[in-house]
Specification:
Helix content: 40-55%
CATH class: Alpha Beta
Structural class: alpha/beta
Number of strands: 8
Shape: elongated
Strand content: 15-25%
Distance between the termini: 49 Å
CATH topology: 2-enoyl-CoA Hydratase, Chain A, domain 1
CATH superfamily: 2-enoyl-CoA Hydratase, Chain A, domain 1
Length: about 280
Amino acid sequence: MWNPFRKKPPLIPIVRLEGMIAPRGGPFGGLNLAAVAPLLERAFAMKRAPAVFLAVNSPGGSPVQSALIAGRIRALAEEKGKPVIAFCEDAAASGGYWIACAADEIWADPASLLGSIGVISSGFGFQEAMGRIGVERRLRTAGAEKALNDPFSPQRPEDVARLEELLAALHEEFKAWVRARRGARLAAPEEALFSGRVWTGRAALEAGLCDGLGEARAEAKRRFGEKAELLPIGPRKRPFPLSLLPGALASRAGAGLAEAALTAAEERAAWARLGL
């Protein structure tokens, strides 16, 4: 029989932060501030919640979106006065680890992959292929560095130097964030921590990149009692079949799917760099 005076069990919101971090999302998901902010607002708005959990599963991506998401988590945590605990799943690497560092504590599975505290830039050069098929590249710029790293032009030493300078500056931002959030908990030498190396959960614990090994449900019960429950908070997905669209819209949707396929390929490459 229901008792209106019986104390309700603790309910802990857990926000899923999963996938590649990119300025724009797509049909297959993706992390950016625009998509994540409403989920975080819902989680932190739960007055009875003793904490907010984050389920992080990301190979990384945009450093700007990583910083924006992490910044919003910290702002809400301070505004609502709630502790934040991140639980790393397959990976919290690169931008994924940047986001995890917004939590007050980071927990991982022994087989999770954490770290990758570095910055990467990749691309292709097509200038020789264009010559073989008889295509001439016509490029005009106002500004000596406007066409930096253009894939259809030969790579210039000054472009390489400028790109390396940009990557180094972004790396310093990443390192400063990790130092600020992890502080004295970092136990391994910085040349190893900030080399871009990926650490398993157990090794990450020894290096100070995380605080414990475990998963969200068990940790919720250990902290808040056996009756504690998790409330998953994620995006609402509403798939729409292309067959229901008229011709012009279906064509546009098809182009969107082609773009999504490229995004999916990029995400697949990001996971592959971690061996996943």
